[in-house]
Design a protein that fits this description.
35% of the residues lie in helices and 11% in strands. The protein has 372 residues and is an alpha/beta fold. The strands form 3 sheets. Strands 2-1-3-4-5-10 form a 6-stranded mixed sheet. Strands 6-9 form a two-stranded parallel ribbon. Strands 7-8 form a two-stranded antiparallel sheet. Helix 12 crosses helix 13. It is globular, with a radius of gyration of 20 Å. The N terminus is likely disordered.
């Protein structure tokens, strides 16, 4: 398997230990795919069964356990990233996480309480790190803040854009969404340039997942049977994602031409996730396009009326979307987000460097630690 050698390296687990690494910190920007508690710090309401696998309780993550950003931090010998919005118990000495669930690249033109889109867009997250740096550079700064030189040495990760792509799909269709996707890619590029001006030099930008394989979208988005491929994924939606990813990659190449002393890395996690959806059993999993946590059973186990962990009275009957007993066998946790098991496999691929363009083997830059 393509991740076997990495599995042998990282299969054992261990506590946080500082390791020899080029990157003493990570600053992350994103949405629910990498949010480690920012959204729930701003809007406290998290509940079980989220976090059931690793944390044994809700931990601000849209999964049963750890996310790719968690595994990445562990591999680099860093602690889990504290959410910037969390006021209690946060430690930013090794970086910060500005990601929040439901965030978009573009500024939202609606309210969280109307459409579910977070107010913490990428531009707001950028302002937050600028605010953090301003406090760090004050003569008598205090608290668990990073060293001023951290900003030039850190690894900057950007994993956002999924909500820009999917939030209007049902309303305006693929062609409607495509009209503003160039702005999404351009905004990410502009953000990198802003971070560069702050001292940042190493950037990893994750592309979009194959949303045509997500149980939630297979349930909610309009499509014909003829639009399903042999693996049960929607061809048209996945093709549209590939088009955007190619545009994002080209945009990042243009950024690299301007910022020649920076590393701007396009990370193709799309290919890894697509492989897991298409061939879960080849990677130690059982279910690709079926959610672990949901309601309704069937091929997808996703009910748009009642999300994972929630209850609702439907036709006089109290319905609860519950979690499976074996999330380690699933790619999809709740129909939209990945399980810890899938996130671990994705991280192995990222650490190897072969899914990064240009090639970016973190194993050559850091004494990688176990992520079991």
């Amino acid at each position: 398997m393509w991740f076997l050698w990495l599995f042998l390296l990282f299969c054992s687990s261990g506590p946080f230990t500082e390791a020899k690494c080029k990157f003493p910190a990570i600053f992350n920007f994103g949405d629910s795919n990498s949010d480690t508690g920012g959204f729930w710090a701003a809007f406290p309401a998290e509940h079980s069964p989220f976090g059931m696998t690793y944390f044994k309780k809700p931990a601000g993550r849209a999964s049963d356990g750890r996310l790719v950003i968690d595994f990445l931090a562990q591999a680099l010998g860093l602690p889990f990233l504290s959410p910037y919005l969390k006021s209690i118990g946060s430690d930013f000495r090794h970086g910060a996480n500005f990601a929040t669930a439901a965030s978009t690249v573009l500024l939202p033109n609606t309210s969280l309480f109307v459409t579910g889109i977070s107010p913490f867009s990428l531009a707001i997250q950028l302002n937050q790190i600028k605010d953090l740096q301003a406090h760090v550079l004050e003569p008598n700064h205090y608290g668990n803040l990073p060293h001023p030189k951290i900003f030039s040495k850190a690894l900057y990760t950007i994993d956002i854009g999924q909500n820009d792509f999917t939030s209007n799909l049902n309303a305006i269709g693929i062609e409607g969404v495509k009209q503003y996707l160039p702005q999404v890619a351009s905004q990410i590029a502009w953000t990198i340039k802003e971070l560069y001006d702050m001292g940042g030099r190493n950037f990893m930008v994750f592309n979009l997942a194959p949303i045509g394989c997500f149980p939630a979208f297979l349930t909610e988005l309009r499509h014909n049977i003829s639009d399903l491929d042999e693996y049960g994924c929607m061809i048209s939606y996945n093709n549209a994602v590939v088009d955007y990813n190619n545009m994002l990659n080209e945009t990042l190449h243009q950024v690299l031409d301007v910022l020649q002393d920076a590393s701007v890395i396009y990370v193709d996690t799309h290919s890894v996730k697509l492989e897991l959806f298409q061939h879960p059993k080849e990677h130690g999993l059982l279910y690709g396009t079926k959610a672990c946590c949901g309601h309704g059973g069937g091929a997808y186990n996703f009910d748009p009326e009642v999300f994972c962990g929630n209850s609702k009275v439907i036709n006089g009957i109290n319905i609860t979307a519950t979690a499976c007993e074996d999330p380690q066998n699933y790619v999809s946790w709740d129909g939209i987000h990945a399980t810890e098991a899938a996130n671990k496999i994705i991280t192995w691929a990222v650490l190897g460097g072969s899914y990064s363009h240009p090639f970016f083997p973190l194993s050559k830059l850091c004494d990688l630690q176990p992520i079991g």
